[in-house]
Amino acid sequence: MSDDQSEGTSAMADALSPRLDGGKGTVLGNEIQAKIGQHLRAMYDDVVRQGVPDRFLDLLAKLDKTDEVPGEGGGRK
Amino acid sequence: MSRFDPALRDEIIAAIPNLRAFAISLSGSVDRADDLVQETLLRAFANISSFRPGTNLPAWLFTILRNLFRSEYRKRRREVPDSDGAFAATLTSNPDQNTHLDFEDFRTALDQLPSDQREALVLVGASGFSYEEAADICQCAVGTIKSRVNRARKRLGEMLALDDVDDFGPDKTTRAVLAADQP
C-alpha cells in the first residue's frame, strides 16, 4: 500500500517479527508474537477478501452520474 | 460522462476492502464500519480536488475515515462489541477448532487494547502501512507510532501468554526455567 514498497514491507516485517522485550524475548514470547501477527493478518484479510459490497459500488455509481450528493435532493434513488 | 477520473475512481474502489477492515477494527461493529466507509467515500468525492494526484491515495482515505471515527467517538464511546466480536461476525471461513479457540483469545485480547495502540498495530501490522504513513494517518510522530505498536505487541503477548500458556510448546518445567531466566 506504500508508494515505497520496500519501506512499507520492512515496517510490517519489523512490527510482526517475532521479537518481544526489545529482542530479549523467550521462546514462548517468540511463538506468541508470531501468532499475534498471524491472527491479526488472518482477521484483517478475511474482511479484505470479502471484496467491495454492492452498496459501495451503487454509491459510487450514483456519485459518478449525478451532480448532487445523494441525500441532498436531486440525487437518483 | 463520468465526473471523476476513472483511474482515481478505480483506485478508490480498490481501497474499500482495506478501509472496511480498518473501520471494523476501530469501531468494533460491522454495521458502523460500513457506515464509516460510506461517509468516507462521500467526503472523499466531495473533497476530491484536495487530493494531490500521485500522492498516497489509501493513506488519504484512511486519514478521512479515522478523522470521521474520532469525531464520532468524542460524541459516544466505542460500543462494546457483541460477545462474538466484530471480526467474528465477518468470518467467512470455518477454521478448525484449535484455530477457532486461538482466534477467540486473540480477539478478546485485541478488544482490550487502548484504541490508539490497536489502530497503530492494525495500520502497521495488517494494513501494511509504513511507520511514516501510519504516523501521517494518525497525525502523530513516527516515534509515537512505534511506541504504540511495541506496547500493543507486548500487552497482547502478556495477555495471550497468561491465557494460552498450555497451548504453546514448552511444558511446565521448561517454562519455569525460561521464566527464571527473565531479567
TrEMBL record, chain A:
Pfam families named in the record: NepR
Region (Disordered): 1-25
InterPro entries referenced in this protein's UniProt entry, alphabetically: NepR
Residues in Anti-sigma factor NepR domain copies: 33-66
Protein name (record): Anti-sigma factor NepR domain-containing protein
Origin species: Ancylobacter dichloromethanicus
